[in-house]
Amino acid sequence: MNISKTGRLARLFPSCNRILLAALFVSLVAPALIAGDPEIFPLSQIQPGMKGEAYTIFAGDQIEKFDLVVIGVMPNFLAPKESIILVQLLGPKVEHTGVVAGMSGSPVYIDGKLAGALSLKLGQFSKEPLAGVTPIENILSLPKGQPGAMRAEVMPGEAAPSGQMEARLEIPSDWVSRAGISGGSFLTPIESPLVFSGFSALAIRQFEHEFAAYGMAATQGGSVDARSDDGNIRPGDMVSAVLLEGDLSLNASCTVTAIVDGRVYVCGHPLFGFGAVQMPMARGRVLTTLSSELESTKIVNVGGTIGSFNQDRVTAVVGSLGAAPKLIPIDMTVATPDGDKHLAFRMISNPKITPILMGIAALNGLIQSSVYGEGTTLHLTGGIDIAGHSSVTLDNLFPPMDSFVPDGLPVAGAVQSTFQRIFSNQYETANIERVTLRMESMPERRQMTIEGAWLDKSEAEPGDTVNVRVQLRPYRGSPVIRDVRIEIPPQAPRGTSMQILASDSGTLNRMSVVSGSQARLDSLEQLISVLNRERRNNRLYVTLLGSSPTMVVQDKVMPNVPASQINLLDQRGGPASSLVVRQSAAGEWSLPLDQIVQGSTTLTIQIK
């Protein structure tokens, strides 16, 4: 068949048009995809009415462009010399979704030059496509040195890390009319999707308020297998800060703004505002963007780890590709009649957030167990291994709650509290090497109350053995009697009386004062000693008390101390290093039970 030259040209023109359109598209998106040093559009040259574009992902791995127009520059809006560029987003997608959670960090270009990153949105519960842009000069001016480890405490006279920028940034009245919005409007940081994988909705609800204060939108998501191209990130791609990874994962996601001199700039605002941090960086894979009148958000799955974040500052989160920081390995076991269920995961080490992560992980491990049910008694055991120190031992029972909260919440609170005490110590940074937790659900409410006690004799000689009979009443059960045999010390002074205290663990922990005397301690090891010496609530304690005073010096309890020695130690150590308690424990005995013991009662015995 003969084909005329005219026919060949007719078919050639559509092909040429497609090539030209493709070339035009590449020329438009090229500025957003450059991973080298971008050309900067100075803040000083930005004028109202300028047009630009921003780049982000709405679904899949496709970086998409949407248009914007500059309303103006709001000088010193965040802080002195921290201005914001106010822009109106244009296009069918952003007009439908508004500013989306996860869009923070999306690079903004004017005349093909990088001007900044999307960081703020208009108010709450608003789909108005009005946004604030953090200028690129403020982002690139962040510290470039390698950070040290975050301190475990705030020193006297210093301000605590500020966390997320102010939740509400009021728009001045002269800008309200310029932007065409109602009076009383404000800007707020664009939320970062906080993606929970392996967590129940109940556990998320109990803890999501802890993260909401930092501008994070809790959502359930997943994780995907690492891919060879995970590290090939460009401006406009999604990345995630890893808080937990493994059988449980928790990640905060936002958009890449720029990659300059090997440093990856993301978010356009802080995640937590911690300053120096050590958090793994992972690839974020966007499933879709969910439009909502309440809050539009990106649905993100987390991919492979590709580097680390080391700065979490007011204008950006900064990291680099390559090795990830060391995480704390957690081995969690939930006992069931069919065998133990194991969970293995790793979490970041940070004095502010690690205790919260441990709390939510413990609660989730319990309530997702097939044997978990309200009205049962929970048994927590385990240990916390700290480099260069003794391990912290965990062992306690927890009764069901009468209030309308999950029964597993006190378990989570106990784990969280222990980690807070370790991390908040003022002696040294705790390098936690490993954590093991074992949780068991025991049927029924296993709880006993001390109703009374009596002795087999009212008088005794030094060295005698005395039987203490204690009556306990189980929850909705008949009273039971337990015997504890104690010995009167051979050196007990004749003609005096001594007190015998039958009690639960809490009464003794409060009496010893040691558990609340962290300021008198001198080292992390002493704190660990105090934690391990705290009594367990599944034991009945009987304590013999004498009238001579006890002195608490750092983590040491010194009973029957003479007055002359008290004066000497008190003068040598200073008023904050020691404490005098009115009575001394001449002996302590305990009886293990499979019940939680509550209450106390006191008896008196004469020494003849």
Summarize this structure as a short list of keywords or feature phrases.
608 residues; alpha+beta; Ubiquitin-like (UB roll); 6-stranded antiparallel beta barrel; 34 strands; disordered N terminus
Describe this structure in words.
The chain has 608 residues and is an alpha+beta fold. Residues 1-35, 147-166, 513-519 and 570-581 have low confidence and may be disordered. It is elongated, with a radius of gyration of 32 Å. 19% of the residues lie in helices and 42% in strands. It has three domains: 34-149 and 162-202 and 213-325, no CATH class; 328-442, Ubiquitin-like (UB roll) (Roll), CATH 3.10.20; 447-607, no CATH class.
